[in-house]
């Protein structure tokens, strides 16, 4: 923070009002196992449902339901015949990380603890706990270059140290469900309570409250 203050006092003042866990990886929670600091997933989903956004509410929900139904099935088929321990993209990331270990010099301290030198910097990596003082491994669940250098020196495989969140078995469980198709509106059961307005109403014809939600 002191370096930020020297560089830009206005930025320092603004960041001081926000919890560091919202903008600094050094303070990120290690629970989600994700190192991203962006709203890309929201933007991507928003673009993905673009064709549905300006539709009447029932049509919008049906388009989203159908897209989600197809997405689940596509993901399930994509991973069905893959028999590796971790997902393909994670394996690609591990391979990239291996190439970054050339400047790392791991020294074993014992009991799964390693001292890893990278230039003038020194990091402590604990293979049993799957953590490193650089915090990349802690936050993402995927070994950093310091961890990978120690793992390979110990003649182990980096994929064995990846968090179960990224295992193929976990991926298959996540996409194992099915969104059941539903018939058209003419076959819907009449439920108790206020009826849902059909697609023949446009947003401008809906009551103020409903129009606001559109």
How would you briefly describe this protein structure?
This protein has 214 residues and is an alpha+beta fold. The chain has helices spanning 2-7, 9-16, 40-48, 50-53, 57-80, 88-99, 136-140, 145-153, 168-174, 208-213; strands at 104-110, 113-118, 121-126, 131-132.
Q: How is this structure best described in words?
A:
The longest helix is centred in the first third of the chain and has 24 residues, at 57-80. This protein starts with a helix and ends with a helix. It is an alpha+beta fold. It contains ten helices and four strands, in the order ααααααββββαααα. Strands 1-2-3-4 form a four-stranded antiparallel β-sheet. Residues 201-214 have low confidence and may be disordered.
On the 0-100 scale, what is the average pLDDT? 87
SS summary, helix count? 10
Largest sheet: 4 strands, antiparallel
Q: What's the number of extended β-strand segments?
A: 4
Overall structural class, as computed from helix and strand content, comes to: alpha+beta
Report strand %: 5-15%
Rg over alpha carbons: 25 Å
Strand order of the largest sheet: 1-2-3-4
Report the uncertain regions: 201-214
Distance between the termini: 43 Å
SSE ordering: HHHHHHEEEEHHHH
Topology of helices and strands:
Elements: H1 2-7, H2 9-16, H3 40-48, H4 50-53, H5 57-80, H6 88-99, E1 104-110, E2 113-118, E3 121-126, E4 131-132, H7 136-140, H8 145-153, H9 168-174, H10 208-213
Antiparallel strand pairs: 1-2, 2-3, 3-4
